[in-house]
UniProtKB/TrEMBL annotation:
InterPro entries: TF_DEAF-1 (IPR024119), Znf_MYND (IPR002893). The keyword GTP-binding does not apply. One of its GO terms (cellular component) is nucleus. Residues 6-42 form the MYND-type domain. The lineage of its organism: Eukaryota, Fungi, Dikarya, Ascomycota, Pezizomycotina. This is MYND-type domain-containing protein. Keywords: Metal-binding, Zinc, Zinc-finger. GO terms for molecular function: DNA-binding transcription factor activity, RNA polymerase II-specific; zinc ion binding. The keyword Metal-binding applies. It comes from the Eukaryota. PROSITE patterns: ZF_MYND_1, ZF_MYND_2.
């Protein structure tokens, strides 16, 4: 993340995770609260080295760090995702080569995340989540890395998260960007609130709600109940 904010609360984060050196926290309390989710990507983020970025084998090919939720694994893993400059509706756009990660149907779902859904914080770039559109009916295997986040939805098949520079409308997002562990909390929160009928960018909790939340709640313990249309904290209190 381009700024120096705590991953869990609105304060400045002067302490970094000592292993991956990517995510920031204001206090041990916030770090402890975040660890239950951060531990899923910290090892992969630590082992994943920018110096290992593949050399493009052709002009207008790029490799970017992305996060793959592979149904054959138990945790998400960072990968190098290949992008190619392609013409789309008269514009040149760096397009991810999704068939290489098993997202191989004609219909591919595409979600954009531009704000942290709980902290209501604008992200430094746009995160895109891509997966098979028909994963419930095409025989796709349950996605254990996603379902382990205790999402309500029955996610199946491979899912990849990658980043595009900028936070404008989709047609202005043309350049790919590296994703890192600081993007993970927004992805987790998104998957937890998925099913809400409101567009993500308007899904928000008020500042008053935020003040009353514990760090654990802000770190992703928030549950959205689509039946009642409300957010609940981990103790079942309506927000
Ligand atoms: Zn904090
Ligand atoms: Zn870490």
């Amino acid at each position: 993340m381009a700024d120096n904010l705590c991953e869990v609360c609105p304060k400045t984060g002067d302490q970094r995770c000592s292993r991956c050196r990517q995510v920031r926290y204001c206090s041990h309390q916030c770090q402890r609260a975040a660890w239950v989710k951060h531990k899923l990507v910290c090892d992969s983020a630590t082992e994943f080295n920018s110096q290992d970025r593949p050399t493009p084998d052709a002009a207008e090919v790029y490799y970017r760090r992305a996060l793959l939720f592979d149904p054959e694994k138990t945790k998400p893993n960072f990968i190098w995702l290949k992008f190619k400059l392609e013409q789309v509706d008269g514009h040149f756009v760096e397009q991810p080569q999704l068939d290489a990660v098993g997202i191989d149907e004609p219909d591919i779902e595409d979600f954009m995340i531009q704000k942290h859904p709980v902290l209501d914080r604008t992200l430094p770039h746009t995160i895109r989540l891509r997966f098979r559109d028909n994963f419930l009916s095409d025989g796709s295997k349950a996605n254990a890395p996603v379902q382990s986040l205790k999402t309500k939805h029955d996610w199946r098949g491979p899912m990849v998260a990658y980043a595009m520079k900028g936070t404008e409308g989709i047609e202005d997002l043309r350049e790919s960007d590296d994703l890192d562990a600081t993007d993970f909390p927004s992805i987790v929160s998104f998957l937890k609130v998925y099913g809400d009928e409101r567009p993500l960018t308007t899904t928000r909790i008020t500042n008053e709600d935020l003040k009353n939340m514990s760090p654990a709640e802000r770190a992703g313990g928030i549950i959205f109940d689509s039946a009642t249309g409300s957010f609940y904290n981990s103790a079942g209190r309506r927000l």
